[in-house]
Structure to design on (464 residues):
């Protein structure tokens, strides 16, 4: 006999299940069985839920309380984000989670109805390792939710008439977020002068042995603390070391009105900051084109560089990669950036934000897009692109004697993984690590982040 009741529904799905089954189904099924037995089932029991059914690639779970459902999903995903998690195949197993609440139809032990279907649709839209929930679910949970949430806007789903307003779970520790805000406000900004009389803004965050960050395409010493791409790694490293950061010429808090923006000047600027900070020898941490700058600096001054961490890097700019498509993309990117940089929402900056940090929440991507406008002028951006798109450090790479950790996400939309592999292959003392993610800069909401943090901290410990 059919019954109807109000329920909070948690839908779980295994990311990449079909692909992994084709490779080694017995190993995957054994790992999933262990994962459900040790993590999912105990979490559901603790939060007074009921597993309606386990599917090969996921689960349908019912709760009478929306808060219990959210806390259960959070506990499961939090556990799966731990860097030493043994559930892998051979890559870490990731789940997507979707939460919705509404009337369900009960037939025996099974559930049917719109609430079930909508929870499944929401789950399919979640990032790997993420949790999405409907605004209706959030309203039913009331005002006692302690888990931080971020707005994700309205989304349309096939078979559902009205768009649904969504939120995502923010896995950033609130205490860490407050710590970053204080750092942004209280850090001491200093200035040094380059060989060609350009003023560079620099600062040191944290204490201990120094680590120097190479300049990336745009930055801002204060705003980077608030951005989802740089804030996690900056916080992590400055907690153990003295992280020296600076804004490259032409952007951030450094001089914008400069006669020359060139790759050679970027290398000179690194030397000026090393000298101003009193750093004789240290590791460098670099992102994107900063990896090429770090490599060139290490080739020129091997005595000053003990190691390099390279994240999302490349040795060849887009226009140098040998394909007509890459050249056209470089030209199109430059034209779009300079023409549309100051546009209001939705802007080119929003598109870039989605490309650089697709795993961040819509709210964080929007804020990052707004911050970009404060970092650089459209004119200087065009000058930067002329340098970045045409750089080529392949002949310098064999001269880099320092050990290098080269890290790249397999689905990086800004610079494909083959460019990170090319970079690592040219370095005589490099270790390459690929992660199953699609971010260029890795935010904390990406389950790749704990792995990246573990690997970077482990590598630096050897060479500081």
């Amino acid at each position: 006999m059919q019954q109807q009741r109000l329920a909070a529904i948690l839908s779980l799905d295994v990311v990449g299940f079909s692909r992994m089954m084709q490779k080694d189904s017995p190993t995957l099924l054994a790992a999933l069985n262990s994962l459900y037995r040790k993590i999912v089932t105990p979490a559901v029991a603790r939060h007074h839920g009921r597993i309606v059914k386990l599917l090969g690639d996921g689960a349908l779970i019912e709760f009478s309380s929306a808060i219990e459902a959210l806390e259960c999903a959070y506990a499961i995903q939090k556990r799966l984000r731990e860097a030493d998690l043994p559930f892998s195949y051979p890559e870490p197993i990731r789940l997507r989670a979707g939460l919705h609440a509404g009337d369900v139809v009960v037939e025996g032990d099974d559930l049917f109805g719109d609430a079930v279907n909508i929870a499944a649709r929401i789950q399919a839209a979640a990032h790997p390792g993420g949790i999405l929930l409907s605004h209706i679910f959030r309203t039913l949970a009331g005002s006692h939710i302690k888990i931080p949430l971020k707005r994700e806007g309205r989304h349309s789903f096939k078979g559902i008439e009205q768009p649904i307003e969504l939120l995502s779970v923010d896995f950033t520790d609130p205490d860490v977020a407050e710590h970053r805000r204080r750092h942004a406000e209280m850090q001491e900004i200093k200035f040094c002068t380059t060989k060609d009389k350009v003023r560079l803004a620099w600062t040191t965050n944290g204490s201990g042995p120094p680590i120097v960050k190479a300049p990336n395409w745009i930055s801002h010493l204060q705003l980077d603390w608030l951005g989802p791409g740089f804030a996690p790694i900056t916080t992590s490293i400055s907690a153990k070391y003295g992280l020296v950061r600076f804004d490259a010429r032409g952007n951030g808090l450094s001089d914008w009105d400069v006669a020359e923006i060139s790759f050679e000047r970027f290398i000179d600027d690194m030397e000026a900051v090393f000298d101003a900070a009193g750093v004789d020898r240290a590791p460098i941490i670099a992102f994107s084109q900063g990896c090429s700058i770090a490599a060139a600096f290490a080739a020129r001054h091997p005595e000053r560089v003990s190691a390099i961490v390279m994240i999302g890097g490349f040795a060849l700019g887009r226009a140098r990669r040998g394909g007509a498509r890459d050249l056209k993309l470089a030209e199109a990117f430059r034209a779009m950036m300079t023409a549309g940089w100051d546009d209001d929402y939705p802007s080119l900056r929003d598109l870039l934000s989605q490309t650089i940090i697709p795993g961040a929440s819509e709210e964080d991507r929007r804020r990052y897009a707004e911050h970009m406008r404060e970092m650089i002028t459209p004119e200087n951006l065009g000058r930067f692109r002329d340098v970045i798109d045409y750089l080529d450090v392949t002949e310098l790479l064999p001269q880099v004697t320092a050990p290098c950790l080269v890290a790249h996400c397999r689905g990086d939309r800004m610079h494909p993984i083959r460019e990170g592999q090319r970079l690592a292959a040219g370095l005589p003392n490099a270790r390459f690590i690929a992660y199953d993610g699609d971010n260029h800069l890795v935010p904390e909401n990406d389950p790749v982040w704990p792995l990246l943090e573990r690997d970077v901290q482990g590598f630096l410990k050897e060479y500081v």
